Amino acid sequence: MAVREVIRMGDPRLLRVAKPVEAFGTPQLRALVADLLDTMQAMNGAGIAAPQIAVDQRVVIFGGFRSPRYPDAEDIPFTVLCNPVLVPIGDAREDGWEGCLSVPGMRGVVSRWHRLRYTGFDPDGRPIDRTVDGFHARVVQHECDHLDGVLYPMRITDLRQFGFADVLFPGQALEDD
Ligand code: NI
């Protein structure tokens, strides 16, 4: 498959509400997932959503990575999630730093639900149903936001906590996404 171009904030295709997957187990869907995986790995992302490679479908992938940037990430299994539905559990929210392959070089603090249940389907149409919290919940919320045309800077409430990664975290050798 292929590493695809990741479109960046400012491109109107990132602002669309993506279309549901209607056919599972197809060669097209498998090819999309393979391209998403190649692209996420090439850019050292925690996850990626189909709209970020300009594909107007409700498909996200995340997890299954090890990265010094995401020390909490080892618990997240590699997941392909189509047509996701997220339901928060409880009222607790949590602030955390986020970055995005479509907003390269930047980081910002975003408030997310601490705990949630997500449902959806894998590429073969088998149901997925998980209850998660913490970083796993954050990644799912970030990626699924892309399906509704929402980028994390839109959710930052204190713009003083938004900036360039190398300025915010000098000497930490963060990767340039
Ligand atoms: Ni993103």
| Oligomer state of the chains in this structure | single chain
Termini separation: 22 Å
Low-pLDDT runs of 5+ residues are none
Inertia-based shape: globular
Average pLDDT over all residues: 94
- DSSP helix fraction: 10-25%
Major sheet characteristics: 5 strands, antiparallel
**CATH-defined superfamily:** Peptide deformylase
CATH topology category name: Peptide Deformylase
**Beta-strand percentage?**
25-35%
- Our count of helices gives 3
**Quick one: how many beta strands?**
8
CATH level 1 name:
Alpha Beta
Whole-number count of domains? 1
Strand line-up in the sheet with most strands: 1-2-3-6-7
Describe the structure.
The protein has helices at residues 27-42, 134-147, 165-168; strands at 47-49, 59-62, 79-88, 93-98, 106-113, 115-121, 127-133, 162-164. It is an alpha+beta fold. The protein has a five-stranded antiparallel sheet with strand order 1-2-3-6-7, with helices on both faces. A three-stranded antiparallel sheet has the order 4-5-8. It has a single domain (12-168), classed as Peptide Deformylase (Alpha-Beta Complex). The model has no long low-confidence stretch (mean pLDDT 94). The longest helix is centred in the N-terminal third of the chain and has 16 residues, at 27-42. The chain contains three helices and eight strands; from the N terminus they run H-E-E-E-E-E-E-E-H-E-H. Nickel (II) ion is lined by residues 100-102, 142, 146.
